[in-house]
Amino acid sequence: MEKLLEVKGLKTHFFTSGGVVKAVDGISYDVAPGETVAVVGESGCGKSVGAMSILRLIPDPPGKNMGGEILFQGRDLLELSDAEMRDIRGRDIGMIFQEPMTSLNPVLSIGRQLTETVEHHLKVSRKQAMERAIELLGLVGISEPERRLKQYPHHLSGGMRQRVMIAMSLACEPKLIIADEPTTALDVTIQAQILELMKNLTRELGVAMIIITHNLGVVARYADRVNVMYAGRIVESGTAEEIYHNPKHPYTLALLRSVPRMDQPRGAKLEPVDGQPPDLTKLDGGCAFRPRCRFATESCAQAQPVLEEVAPAHISACFEKDRVGLTAGVTA
Amino acid sequence: MTTDSTLERAAGTNLGETLVQVRDLKMFFPVTEGAIIPRVIAHVKAVNGISFDIKKGETLGLVGESGCGKTTTGRCMLQLETATEGAIYYDGQDLTKLTKQEMRPLRQRIQVIFQDPYSSLNPRMKIGEIISEPMMVHKTEPDAAARDKRVRELLAVCGLNPKFADRYPHEMSGGQRQRVGIARALAVRPEFIICDEAVSALDVSIQAQVINLLEDLRDEYDLTYLFISHDLSVVRHLCQRVAVMYLGNIVELAETDELFDNPMHPYTQALLEAVPIPDPTIEKARAHRVITGEIPSPMNPPPGCVFHPRCGIAVDECKKLVPEFREVKPGHWVACSQV
Touching check for B262 and chain A: CB below 8 Å? Predict the structure, then answer.
């Protein structure tokens, strides 16, 4: 299949007074047109930094790209000038941020925020842009769009603001949308509304999506493929079915066993992974998950495992991947 | 895995006497206008007449979305808010009628664990000081050496290195801080702990560690919990009975298995359907019916049943009559006229 986005060996490091933080340390993946790829992991694993790096939104200093390529429709985004990059952001690649409270401009009306993008990228008149804005608000299910255009973000609830964010990201008919924890700040019933909306719109309009989340339920409902990140690297990647039914990395397995599930009998104890995520300034040459891993052996301290195929379209970075599986006792 | 005691408790068989009784609790916050002479122009009806019991040794879950009044309920029970109306009986005494002095011995028996492990610990105090402060206030360990010993014990019980007593909160991660919050709550040997979104701010792997800790402590010290959360899967895992709140009212209350297997109130049904299950095969097979609309403002709640504007089965009567909170099956209470 033709690829829309190819990330190859991307590295983003932060140079801080406490040392070099290798927030993203050589990640590679690709996204096909119309496909939804989820990036999962816990706080500080580099999932947001990896996505921000695609749009070149990492402040420099302290952040710096340390290598790799980001091919979007064949062009390397890292080679573009700032002006060329501005043309891509918002037009070819849309963005939905986590905090609908802080990611909208509080002193601009909803209408102005929507038309700004449209006018800038599509070079249309203010009037045409307004018509497009009304159309967009209708698309994301906001009632009385004409009245809403004149309102300001503080007039709207969190769910409404997130709908406006989605409308903005869709304004110029992008090929790809990057959604960073789009529903984390929302209540469950509103989360369900927003997820349904995003799913339907991406299907109807054929937009590809990278969704960044820590919620394994959202991933299961939503994603075609899943990348699991830990300490700045992708440790496992595959189709959603493969990742959930046949996990081959101890971290993925541990994540799946950490969440109480509504569809399983009550009373079973959770089996969390011990310990804390590592300090990214103090990583050694071995596998970063080793100190928390129940499958770790001596060889895990010697070298970093690389991603290898375990099944068709399913890769895992673990020396002991053959021993890892849902049937294997985590306590073994 | 599953212990006999948890199963028994889930069935509600070995539950003892009632520890807490909340009766028709109301908490209205005035909304004022005018900077010099403030006038009350409206009330936010955060909690609008709720009643429930908590038995000794039980974990009662209180679930609902933002603004439904679940946290305010907890704060009223801790006497951090003065309830507008209603009674809160703790071991037979009405907390709303007690003076500060009379309340003090009860504060030792009722403790709280807060949501945010960052803002609920004083950044200028060492962990040891934070944990020993309640013991000093309640004079449970007058001797300083005994207090230090107890701090170290508590840290160990909560899965932290006793050396952490000399550290400051900023030196610890979110999960470790939440363990400190739990150790502080345990310091004065309480019997009842209100957990207000105690695991919501934590990452999944850390959240599971803290859930297991709360379960172990409950079994070890015979604790009673009020577990306030918006996360239905966590509530289902931890609680024996669950109350669902919407806009200041309890709309459904039942034993956990009954509530999750046989939800009767349309709001509970919608909530359960909205929770995604971490399994793509199951998710693909599920029909994702989504309730429309948003939660109305508690300043101006809808007349009649507060849920009727979003409800799929509402009839004309729901717009006028407040549904009675009634027991439709033994132990299963619902506030809906159409059930």
Answer: no
- Are A258 and B208 within 8 A, CB to CB? yes
Mean pLDDT by 10 residues, chain A (332 residues): 88 89 91 93 87 89 89 92 91 85 87 89 89 88 86 85 87 90 81 85 89 89 92 94 92 90 82 82 87 89 91 91 71 37
CB B174 within 8 A of CB B118: yes
Q: Chain B residues with CB inside 8 Å of A157's CB?
A: 294
B11 touches chain A (CB under 8 A): no
Nearest CA in chain B to A255: B205
CATH numbers and ranges of domains, chain B: 16-98+240-334 (3.40.50.300)
Residue B8 has pLDDT above 70, yes or no: no
Contacts of A196 in chain B (CB under 8 A): 288, 290
Summarised one tens digit per residue, pLDDT across range B222-278 is 999 999 998 999 999 999 999 999 999 999 999 999 999 999 999 999 999 888 888
B272, B294, B295, B311, best to mutate vs chain A, most A CBs in 10 Å: B294
Question: Is 3.50.50.60 the CATH number for A33-53+81-223?
Answer: no
Residue ranges covered by each domain of chain A: 33-53+81-223, 233-263+272-332
